[in-house]
Amino acid sequence: MIEDTDDTTNNLFLGPNSGGQNYDGEFMGVMTQGSTLYLSILTGQRPDNGFSGSKGLYSPGDIRIETSMGTFGIEVGGGAVSGAGNALTEGATGTTYAVNSNGYTTGSSDTAAAQTVGSVWRDVDWILDPLAPQQPVQFEINGGSSQVGEADFIFTRDSVTAEHAIIELALDIGVFGGATLQEFYWLPSCGNDELHVSTDITSVPEPASLALMGLGLLGMIGAARRRRT
Questions:
Q1: Which residue from 131, 194, 159 is spatially nearest to 7, judged by alpha carbons?
Q2: In contact, 65 and 183? CB cutoff 8 Å
Q3: In this predicted model, which residue has the larger pLDDT, 63 or 209?
Q4: Rounded to whole angstroms, how far apart are CA atoms 44 and 193?
Q5: Which of 26, 30, 51, 127 has the most CB atoms less than 10 A away?
Q6: Measured between alpha carbons, how far is 57 from 112 in angstroms, rounded to an integer?
Q7: Position 112 pLDDT exceeds 80
Q8: 116 vs 123: CA distance, rounded Å
Q9: Is residue 16 part of a domain?
Q10: Which of 63-67, 84-88, 90-94, 126-130 has the lowest average pLDDT?
Q11: Read out DSSP for 115-153?
């Protein structure tokens, strides 16, 4: 994925809808190391709820992960536009945005107290963006939702351009309960851009203790064979 404009002109087109740095999706990377899942997103969305312009506000969406055992969501947050753009880290108050039919953010509210930035959930209610093809971009927890974990999380903007922002997180892959991780999505709440990575990651890496147990059993079998001979 490449960015659809430079930092100032805001007039090129990449898709799926309109160009413009203020709601730009640029890059998503996913990797695992041992039992840790790492996710990085580069975007024009800033941690102070994007950009306050003449046409409205632009706000970030949450992270959606499709697995063999259902859909998981990670709260991104953002808050109301402040211009300060301070970094968000895990445990900060989450944010749900109201978006009009044209995709502009018209308001924001705090999420439920438990739905903090970096928290990982399943069985949530997904909110669709208003622009075709209307995809899930934000979530709200309900009485049947379960928090399965919390990521080490940071959402910060570039101090030089005041445009580019980076969302980075790391979490124990075991929170997905053995599911195969298949699709990762991030979109701004207006649905203008989409970042999407397809994977085939198992969330049950072999623990070292089990591997050692296997070696021990092989040793016992070998000893038994030697005794019989």
A1: 159
A2: yes
A3: 63
A4: 10
A5: 51
A6: 22
A7: yes
A8: 16
A9: no
A10: 84-88
A11: --TTEEEES-EEEEPSSTT--EEEEE--TT-EEEEE-EE
**Paired residues of 72 in beta bridges:** 65, 122
- Tell whether 2 is covered by a domain: no
Q: Closest by alpha carbon to 101, among 191, 198, 213?
A: 191
What is the rounded radius of gyration, in angstroms, for the C-alpha atoms of the chain?
21
One-letter amino acid of 71: T
Domain count across the chain = 1
Q: Which domain holds residue 185?
A: 21-228
Kindly state whether residue 14 falls inside one of the protein's structural domains.
no
pTM over 0.85: no
Report residue 69: phi and psi, to 5°: -120, 25
User: The tokens of 9 are what?
Assistant: 């002109």
In a domain, 1, yes or no: no
Predicted local confidence at residue 126, as pLDDT: 98
Long-range contacts of 193-200 (CB under 8 A, 24+ apart): 193/4, 193/14, 193/15, 193/16, 193/17, 193/23, 193/24, 193/25, 194/16, 194/25, 194/135, 195/1, 195/25, 195/26, 195/27, 195/28, 195/41, 195/43, 196/28, 197/28, 197/29, 197/30, 199/30
Residue 15 and residue 6 in contact, taking contact as beta carbons nearer than 8 Å? no
CA neighbor of 25 nearest in space, from 36, 34, 14, 35: 14
Question: Tokens representing 168?
Answer: 């980075």
Judge whether 42 and 24 are in contact, CB under 8 Å.
no
